[in-house]
Design brief:
This protein is of the alpha/beta class. The protein has 9 helices and 8 strands. It is 39% helix and 9% strand. α8 links the parallel β4 and β5. The chain is elongated, with a radius of gyration of 27 Å.
């Protein structure tokens, strides 16, 4: 984000007024809620708003105040767009949807025909919300399981894009939608999950609780590196930082390195002390090894980490 100084806090630098994300969040919000569900949300919002001369009920205040505050912040004051931010609004939008469903229920009480119309409308909402989207798309709004409104170049120039491979008419029987059977849990990173306990124990035996371990990335973008370090910090229950002044460095195991201190599943652990890097007290006493006699350090120590 063009920070002029490394002393500027990364979050603080992102808090500034911006109108550049309105179109993006408009499209992704509709995609998240489902196009068929929009009337239901609008109906719920109308029920929460007070009539003339009335005040918001405590229930409406609890739902609308945080919803509006978060929408204004991420939409107009936070200069970073990411569809995951919409999930912060999700709990409060559920209250709006509940009011819409309540209005639909009241409508259904007016006779069999109204009940049938309300049932069909609710079914369409649930069905549209289960339409799978192509991976990596941020500008699509589902019309059918195979037809999407593509607004990549702006809402005014949106056009229909057909992607037959993404359609799945069997989605009603998937993901537990019509099944009450408990879904079996699965781990997408089973090798990491198996290795983490022994890696954590190994580090706990050699480091104090406040000492960090470094993570050597693979030159990917900064967002991927941030995700990996945060995920490891939670799993290892200690700080995970960039390779700088830490003793132990973790990296992914691709080809076994004989210089590694230990290997844990998909991870390799290096101890920089074994590469001739000693403590400050030893260096002050002049107890150095000649650089020509040292083993070459791993590649991350020769150049800054590319993140």
């Amino acid at each position: 984000h063009g920070r002029a100084s490394t002393n500027v806090h990364v979050i603080e630098a992102l808090v500034r007024p911006s109108l550049a994300h309105i179109a993006y969040y408009s499209v992704t919000a509709v995609a998240l809620l489902g196009l068929a569900a929009l009337p239901l949300y609008l109906l719920g919002l109308f029920r929460l708003l007070p009539g003339r001369g009335e005040r918001l009920t405590p229930w409406a205040q609890a739902a609308l105040f945080p919803l509006v505050a978060l929408a204004v912040f991420f939409g107009f004051l936070y200069d970073w767009q990411d569809k995951r931010f919409l999930y912060y609004l999700r709990p409060f939008s559920v209250a709006v949807a509940a009011e819409g469903i309540s209005a639909l229920r009241n409508f259904a009480r007016g006779g069999k025909l109204r009940a049938a119309v309300a049932g069909l409308a609710l079914g369409a909402v649930l069905f549209s919300n289960r339409i799978p989207y192509p991976a990596g798309t941020h500008s699509y709004v589902a019309l059918t399981p195979s037809d999407f409104l593509d607004a990549a170049e702006g809402i005014g120039t949106a056009h229909v894009q057909s992607i037959p491979a993404s359609g799945s008419w069997s989605l009603l029987t998937q993901d537990g939608f019509l099944s009450f059977a408990r879904a079996r849990g699965s781990c997408q990173m089973q090798a990491e999950a198996t290795a983490i306990p022994s890696l954590r124990k190994f580090l706990d035996e050699r480091l104090t609780r406040s000492e960090p371990v470094a993570w050597a990335g693979e030159g990917a973008d900064s967002t991927s590196y941030w995700i990996e370090t945060n995920r490891l910090a939670i799993a290892l229950e200690r700080a995970v930082v960039k390779p700088d002044s830490t003793r132990f460095i973790l990296r992914r195991l691709h080809k076994p390195d004989p210089r590694a201190l230990a290997a844990f599943g998909p991870f390799e652990l290096f101890d920089l002390a074994s590469f001739g890097r000693s403590s400050i007290s030893l260096r002050r006493r002049g107890e150095h090894k000649d650089r020509r006699d040292r083993e070459p350090l791993p590649r991350w120590h020769h150049r800054p980490l590319a993140v």
